[in-house]
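Table S2 (text version). Query chain:
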Amino acid sequence: MEVNGLILLLPLAASILMVTFPVKRFPFGGLALFVTLAAFLLTWLVEPGSLQANWLQSGDFRLPLLFSLHDLRLIRLIIGISGLVQFYSLFYLSSSANHRSYYSLLCFFTFAMLGLATSTHLLVTFVFWELVGYTSYRLIGFDTTTSSTSAALKALLINKVGDVCFLIGILMLASTGLLSTSNLVPESAGTLPLLLIFVGVVAKSAQAPLFPWLTAAMAGPTPVSALLHSATMAAEGVLVLLRLVPLLNDTV
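Corresponding structure-token output:
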């Protein structure tokens, strides 16, 4: 395995380990922070590069896993913010008994955000897009209070509006062969698919009129609110738009 791949896989491995670990009383917060710190340090030890593997393949159809780790500054930003949230959570959750699930979700959120930020295939991007949405829903409603559960449901429903539009836009682009964001050329992809993707971006980035979910998310744990309001989830829509700049320049 390439060392670059460890940056993506360490948070995922930590998340899986936490939910399968047989010992109930364990410093899961310390484990999450240690793994996140290790991933952060790796970003300073590796050279920018790409990762590629085939995820699904049947006949002429294949769905590649393509990740670009050229912008290490963005990766460091995501990991750094996640690490700070985990560090604060060590004190915030001092009286909570459900550490395992919480820190597992935080690590999985980090993995999903890294996958979203580095994937260069729109279908794979959508998978990570959904993983980020699902994890944020779980984190917002983590306290299981009436207000946090209601806020989590609101976030889920509003984002699903954008998710459906985003997926339809991607499928329309797929019919033109425009799925890899690493080799887009300034050719017209049509206005409708890009408009649908933009609706998804508006919902995920909490822009008007699809912004109420982000303010409602404050009902969740304070560290989660900080994570969602920082340059992570609310910025993922912008990351997608930046990859589609060649198409936007030709269409808009």
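Notes on Table S2: Residues 3-251 form one domain. The mean pLDDT is 83.
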